[in-house]
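queue> pop job 88
queue> type: inverse folding (structure -> sequence)
queue> payload:
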């Protein structure tokens, strides 16, 4: 229990196998839960340990009074350091943050249609790490994944389009290497997966469509400009005729 909140770390089992659940229970009894495969939990604990070490360094610096810890904090959202974990159906964000009450760890799970957040006081990060390590040691035997070690995957990429964000992630599993393109907006998420052997053809189609769309955009702009010029000439002609008619009326009144 930390700051009157209770946290639980459990290993569960369903028809797919064992998985880990981390739950936060507030004062009002409301629960927030994030679910992880055992492999994801193993990756998560390493990120938690890294952020716990950062927090320890900050506290040591504050005690010595040698370093201003505020310089490491983002002025926008109070983030000190972040990590992201990407998996086929889930994405996890770990943020060491600071607010008026102190430092805390924000863990966010983003799945197809849900976004779950946990807020863990920074002083509880090492205990959370130890709990995950203990459960993994008891209930999980990591399977060797030689293919993952041998493949050098490029880093994930992302960019924002209007109110949506597109993510490009390289994924490797026992079936091979894939490119996963995800579209995320609000609390919704959709994705497509392209086998590595088809990336070349996929790129050719994208390049071809991009050329045609760019050309069509240029033509539309030119047509709009020409139409505006023609409209301008028409307006000038009409104005001239009106002026001529006015002149005639002035010269030859009825």
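queue> result:
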């Amino acid at each position: 229990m930390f700051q009157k909140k209770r946290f639980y770390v459990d290993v569960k089992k369903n028809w797919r196998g064992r998985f880990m659940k981390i739950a936060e229970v507030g004062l009002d009894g409301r629960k927030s839960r994030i679910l992880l495969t055992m492999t994801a939990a193993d990756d998560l604990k390493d990120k938690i340990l890294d952020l716990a070490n950062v927090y320890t360094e900050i506290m040591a610096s504050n005690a010595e009074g040698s370093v201003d810890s505020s310089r490491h904090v983002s002025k926008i959202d109070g983030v000190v350091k972040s990590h992201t974990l990407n998996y086929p159906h889930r994405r996890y964000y770990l943020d060491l943050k600071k607010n008026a009450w102190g430092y805390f760890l924000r863990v966010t799970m983003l799945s197809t249609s849900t976004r779950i957040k946990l807020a863990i006081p920074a002083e509880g990060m090492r205990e959370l790490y130890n709990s995950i390590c203990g459960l993994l040691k008891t209930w999980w035997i990591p399977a060797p994944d030689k293919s993952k070690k041998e493949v050098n995957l490029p880093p994930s990429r992302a960019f924002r389009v209007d109110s949506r964000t597109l993510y490009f992630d390289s994924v490797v599993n026992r079936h091979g290497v894939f490119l996963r393109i995800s579209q995320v907006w609000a609390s919704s998420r959709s994705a497509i997966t392209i086998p590595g052997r088809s990336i070349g053809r996929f790129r050719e189609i994208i390049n071809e469509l991009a050329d045609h769309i760019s050309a069509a955009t240029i033509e539309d702009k030119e047509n709009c400009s020409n139409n505006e010029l023609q409209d301008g000439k028409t307006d000038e002609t009409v104005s001239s005729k009106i002026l001529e008619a006015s002149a005639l009326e002035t010269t030859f009144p009825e």
